[in-house]
Amino acid sequence: MRLFVNGEEHALAVPAQRTLLEALRYDLGLTGSKQGCDKGDCGACTVLAHERGGKGRGEAILSCITLAQDAQDLEITTIEGLAGPQGLDPVQRAFADCGALQCGFCQPGMMLSARALLDKNPRPTLPQIQEALSGNLCRCTGYTKIYEAVQVAAGLREPARRAPVPSERAAPSDSKAQVVKEIVP
Ligand code: FES
Ligand code: FES
Q1: Which of 10, 103, 89, 93 is nearest to 57 (CA)?
Q2: I want to staple 94 with a disulfide (CB 3.0 to 4.6 A). Which of 11, 38, 109, 152 is the partner?
Q3: Which ligand is nearest to the CA of 62?
């Protein structure tokens, strides 16, 4: 079978039940697409897809519940293919600028769902962003920074700025400070 991924065509010999996610990760080495629930619940495996020869990057689809053989007529974009010759995609840049990640496991899927939304709707409302990302679960961030990042990528706002938090100075009587003082000359 053949898969067209990030602008390149690949010839693969895989079992009929191989999912697109497995083919991406284990046959093509594109491990940016994450294997979370592996049953269509978490969105970590999200990639973009459209009919071959079509325009744009297409819709967000779940690669864990798509058979690789059913993707042969599609052009697939994974997170590895999101940045272009000009550098990071604005969505990637905004996620970085907003600090919209912690462990990062959900981020490839989040960013690709966000890209699919902005390609269709360049100035989404917050409810539209929330709806578009509702299939992407994040166990770490609480979503606020993620929604902010999508708004920043759309040019609807600037990243929130926070005053730096002053580091706490240990009081001389603090026992931890004493220990550190003793072991650090
Ligand atoms: S890995 Fe969770 S939806 Fe695909
Ligand atoms: S940053 Fe950890 S799951 Fe989203």
Answers
A1: 89
A2: 152
A3: 1
